[in-house]
């Protein structure tokens, strides 16, 4: 089973491709404000480097937080869109062992579609100015 992992909760983003629980590809890069422009390109390039295509992906594991509001929103949106369009399971995972835990759940055919971000705190809403 080919599984894509995505983590975008901080300026340094990461993606991985796994065959079941064995990592076959991994990339980490400084995405910062270019995450929305680079995430799809990075995934496509990593797939191509390893002789895979979008249609080869059979599951997605995405880090759901806590973390950056915009980073989580972009990564989770991409993961949800892939899951929905390819009709494959998606798992949202947290903690130090998010990849291992997520891989086990996706291989067991669990599905969290849609994954929602966990920001780690309540929203900081400012009072309106008069």
Question: Keywords, please?
Answer:
globular, 3 helices, alpha/beta, five-stranded mixed β-sheet, about 130 residues, Nucleotidyltransferase, domain 5
Overview of this protein structure:
- α1 packs across α2.
- The radius of gyration is 15 Å and the shape is globular.
- A 5-stranded mixed sheet has the order 3-2-1-4-5, with helices on both faces.
- Helix content is 33%, strand content 25%.
- The protein has a single domain, classed as ATPase, nucleotide binding domain (Nucleotidyltransferase, domain 5, 2-Layer Sandwich), CATH 3.30.420.40.
- The model has no long low-confidence stretch (mean pLDDT 94).
- The chain starts with a strand and ends in a 23-residue tail after the last helix.
- It is of the alpha/beta class and 130 residues long.
């Amino acid at each position: 089973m080919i599984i894509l992992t995505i983590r975008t909760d901080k300026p340094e983003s990461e993606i991985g491709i796994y065959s079941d629980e064995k990592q076959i590809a991994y990339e980490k890069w400084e995405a910062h404000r270019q995450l929305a422009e680079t995430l799809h390109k990075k995934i496509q390039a990593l797939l191509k480097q390893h002789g895979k295509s979008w249609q080869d992906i059979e599951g997605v594991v995405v880090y759901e937080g806590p973390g950056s509001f915009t980073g989580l929103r972009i990564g989770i949106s991409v993961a949800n869109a892939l899951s929905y369009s390819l009709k494959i399971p998606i798992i949202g995972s947290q903690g130090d062992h998010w990849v291992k835990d997520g891989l086990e759940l996706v291989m067991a055919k669990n599905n969290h579609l849609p994954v929602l971000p966990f920001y780690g705190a309540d929203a900081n809403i400012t009072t309106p100015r008069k």
